[in-house]
Amino acid sequence: MIKFAVKLGLAGAAVYFTKEEGVWKNSDESVKTYNKMKQSVRPYIQEIKTQLPVELPELPERNKISSFAKQSWNAGVLTTFKFISELPQTVRSWSDKGIQKAMQNEDVRNFVNSFSPKSGAEQK
User: Fold this and answer.
1) Are 59 and 45 in contact (CB under 8 A)?
2) pLDDT, position 22
3) Residues 6 or more apart whose Cβ sits within 8 Å of residue 33
4) How many Å apart are CA 79 and CA 84, to the nearest integer?
5) DSSP secondary-structure letter at 103?
6) pLDDT of res. 106
7) In whole angstroms, what is the distance from residue 76 CA to residue 85 CA?
8) Residue 27 and residue 24: Cα distance in Å, rounded?
9) Does the structure show a pLDDT above 60 at 122?
10) Rounded distance between C-alpha atoms, residue 24 and residue 30, angstroms
């Protein structure tokens, strides 16, 4: 219970902090907050870079993040609508494959055939 309370407190503090810093306001305030955070983190990044054997890339600029977000959003929308438009054919294909696979089982085939009407010769 204490672990849950700590997690809930951290999540609440994160939401409160981001609200107070302007992340959830208009885009101009968000950009200012991003630049402020970038400037405050830069010295720590430089210190960490000197201690690591690999080279860390620079933090991305705002316009690159915006462009990437737009591209990702558009790609996600296109993929979603493509999936929705192809869904009927995909479901039909999966259904056909499932029926074929099930009919390979002799017990299932006998069960299904037991419902089909028998010819006149078989009824006698």
Assistant:
1) yes
2) 73
3) 21, 22, 23
4) 9
5) H
6) 92
7) 14
8) 8
9) no
10) 7
3-class DSSP state of 79: helix
User: What DSSP state is assigned to residue 105?
Assistant: S
Of 40 and 52, the structure prediction assigns the larger pLDDT to 40
SS (H, E, C) 22-42: CCCCCHHHHHHHHHHHHHHHH
What tokens does 15 get? Answer: 């939401």
| C-alpha–C-alpha distance, residues 58 and 56, integer Å | 7
Q: What are phi and psi of 35, to 5 degrees?
A: -65, -40
Contacts of 21 (CB under 8 A, 6+ apart): 33, 36, 37
The owner of tokens 């407190």 is 9
Query: 5: which residues sit within 8 A by CB, 6+ positions away?
Result: none
Flag whether pLDDT at 81 surpasses 90. Answer: yes
Cβ contact 33:62 at 8 Å: no
pTM (2 decimals)?
0.38
